[in-house]
Amino acid sequence: MVKTIQAQDITLEELQENFGLQLTTDSKFFREWQDNLPSLTDEEKRSLERVRSNYFNLVNRRPLLEEGVKLVILAPLLDLAGFFQSPFSITTETSVEISDEDNDLIVRGRIDVLVLQQRFWILVIESKRTKFDVTAALPQALVYMLKNSQHDRPTFAFLLNGREFVFVKLQKADVPIYGRSYALSIEKENELEQVLAALKNIGNLSYQLTINS
């Protein structure tokens, strides 16, 4: 009998058991979020200060829920990173399904925001309530990445809850492996700048991968 699991309910243990997914301990596997990052302009830095100011103004009054995260944090970051401009395009609320025939398991879910560039999957954005740990979105994001990644072609994810941000990289080889960044915080000085620089770096990388494919 085929078992169906919603993506938001699956665990990392289930992904490992059913799809062979492994977390790599190789520190060289995922350097794109911290090495050779582009410099930010003074205007970009001022825009980020505005994002931080808006964040503190809102969270001091009430919890920042998912729609607020998208409006106040996510949209400005995607705009500054250039993902609203050609050659990128954005689709939202996309259904996804992966199955493992050996274990009779189907995983279904929906993506909050999917960023595409010439049919190349770049980022899965999972916005969660600020009171939740940002890594709570990790298993769900990995489901979407497993579905869309190509052999020996990396797929990236960006997880956020408004306060914290985590980057994820997945690559399929003999077995699918992934690595992730530590949680960067909007409340720590200069870390939001690193978030934007990493987004721009991953966007540039995805473009190079696409034109060289």
Q: What is the overall silhouette?
A: globular
The largest sheet is: 8 strands, mixed
Total of helices: 5
Task: Write down the CATH class.
Answer: Alpha Beta
Instruction: Report the β-strand fraction as a percent range.
Output: 25-35%
| Strand runs, count | 11
Low-confidence stretches: none
Write the layout of secondary structure elements.
Blueprint: E1 3-6, H1 12-19, E2 22-23, H2 42-59, H3 66-81, E3 88-92, E4 95-100, E5 105-110, E6 113-117, E7 120-127, H4 138-148, E8 155-160, E9 164-172, E10 176-180, E11 184-185, H5 191-211
Parallel strand pairs: 1-5, 2-10, 7-8
Antiparallel strand pairs: 3-6, 4-5, 6-7, 8-9, 9-10, 9-11
If you had to describe this structure to a student in words, what would you say it looks like?
By secondary structure, the chain is of the alpha/beta class. The protein has one domain (3-211): tt1808, chain A (Alpha-Beta Complex). It has 5 helices and 11 strands. It has helices at 12-19, 42-59, 66-81, 138-148, 191-211, and strands at residues 3-6, 22-23, 88-92, 95-100, 105-110, 113-117, 120-127, 155-160, 164-172, 176-180, 184-185. The strands form 2 sheets. Strands 2, 3, 6, 7, 8, 9, 10 and 11 form an 8-stranded mixed β-sheet that branches. A hairpin with a 4-residue loop joins strand 4 (95-100) and strand 5. Helix 2 (42-59) packs antiparallel against helix 3 (66-81) and helix 3 packs across helix 5. The protein is globular and about 55 Å long. The chain starts with a strand and ends with a helix. The model has no long low-confidence stretch (mean pLDDT 83).
